[in-house]
Amino acid sequence: MRIKINSEIAGQVWKITAPQGTSIGADEPIIILESMKMEIPILAPKAGVVLELHVGEEDMVAEGQWIATLESA
Amino acid sequence: MSWQDDIDEIKKRRDLAKQQGGQEAVAKHHEKGRLSIRERIDGLLDAGSFDEIGQGAGVPEYDEAGQLTGFQPANFILGFGKLNARKVIVGGEDFTVKGGSPNPAGLRKSVYTEELALKYKLPLIRLHEGGGGSVGGTGQDKNRRPLGDPVFSTSRFLPLAETLGAVPVAAAALGPVAGLPAARLVASHFSVMTQNAAVLIAGPQVVKRALGHDLTKEQLGGPQVHLKSGAIDNLAETEQDALDQIARFLSYLPDNVWTFPPHQPTQDKVDRCDEALATIVPRNRRQPFQMRKIIESVVDREKDGSSFFEMSRKFGPSLITGLARMDGHSVGVIGNDCMFYAGAMTASAAQKMRRFVDFCNSFHLPIVSFVDEPGFMIGPDSEMAGTIRHGTSAISAVLQSRVPWACVQVLKAFGVAAQAHFGPDAYVLSWPSAASGALPVEGGVAVAFAREIAAAPDPARRQKELEDMLASSQSPFPRAEGLSVHEIIDPRETRPKLIAWLDSAQAAYRTQAAQPYLTTMRP
After folding, report:
1. Which positions in chain B touch A37 (Cβ < 8 Å)?
2. Is the pTM for the entire model greater than 0.90?
3. Which terminus has fewer CB within 10 Å in chain B: N or C?
4. Rg of chain B over CA atoms, in angstroms?
5. Could you report the per-residue pLDDT of B253-284, keeping only the tens digit for each?
6. Which residues of B are less than 8 Å from A36 in CB distance?
């Protein structure tokens, strides 16, 4: 099942912690946004593989923006 | 002469009422994965406790001899019942008759619901599924003009408004809910919707005709819209989950505003001190933490898990609001969630705060506040949303509170918005991680010392020195020295300290009779 991951907050991509192709567990961070001077992880809702990343480091992200696609078993 | 014929007639009519929209309509409703209103009421109330009102109300058809030949039951079911052995009023539309759009008897019963709750001072539960009025009116006969309400009648919206200041009102959307039922749905202290429910002012056809948008009713008013819009508080996975959430919500509340909330015995220890609290806040201020874990660690643990019942999680998510119990006593809980804009007060978080604080005051719930407030949300979107007005309104609501307040300053308390976390004469406990002031040092230093930083041989180093110096002045120890807080505590002591406070604060609060809570004009 493919899951669209949207960011619930606006911010700037500070770090990509799970690049495309990475296997990831539930509640593990895909990217970390810098928002209001804090490092806020965007977590995988389920275990799976990061199929696509739609943002790069230092990109600005808007509230609700689609940032990644997860393929979950 | 016996009354047997009439007694038989009563039974016949009751049987007709129980058929609702007929076997076919009920089966069709089940196919959509939805329960009928009578099944919902059975799923909610204690077994056998439903005491119906107006079962005989409906739209009859008589032949020339005056014999009943047909009967369309009122499509609103209403009555008394018991929920966990406490009396309640329950009502809801019957979607299997006219899609819940009121027939004349259904309308009378539905508008009587609030009158009943006000008269008997009992909690009110409405289970909604249905449309509003139609241009054809409530009657069946298109050749007759409907007779409107007389000019001297009281508006049906007045008791709807008055119930909110008198009794707890919980409502569920369990299918499409539009027009008047949608207004009734949100005229509640707690509302919940199922995944396949939709809440609409007007449906897709009306919207398309007027505005040209081609949207489904789910796109217009599904849970993804109304949990974020703040119109609906919570999502339910199933209909039974929605009914269970309503039961849980009411378990914290008194029957009405003239009584105090009930006490529920607990097995959880008063002196439980969770070790995890000592390390839960990272020393690095850039790293977030989970405020919900702190709340759940401090409030009672019950047989089925935490006593914390969160409401409106998706609306204004930088603020957490919910109900909980401490040593069995009901409390309102608020906390900042730094995962959303560092916990900043947005316009929606401020509206959520004001509504929740007024709710707690209405039902005499002491408030426990876990503070990590960086200030009002900044930036163009926040200005455009009118955050300053909504935020100031929230502060007014907080400071006009009459219920006891306890505040645990976990981390940040900055700016004007910090005022919204400390009620009048609050009992204030500070964690060692607490930091207070007009502005967080990270932003404040760069602005206040701009010239000094620019003139320094190594500006970055000077900025860091100033930040470190000012950060130490925001520490909680000087505040404890000046008795600006009641106590600076080991975070693990939070639960026993709060319970000891609650015992005294609640006893003092309850020396005065429980009264309705009236508010003044707010900003």
Report:
1. 286, 342, 440, 442-443
2. yes
3. N
4. 27
5. 999 999 999 999 999 999 999 999 999 999 99
6. 341-342, 344, 374
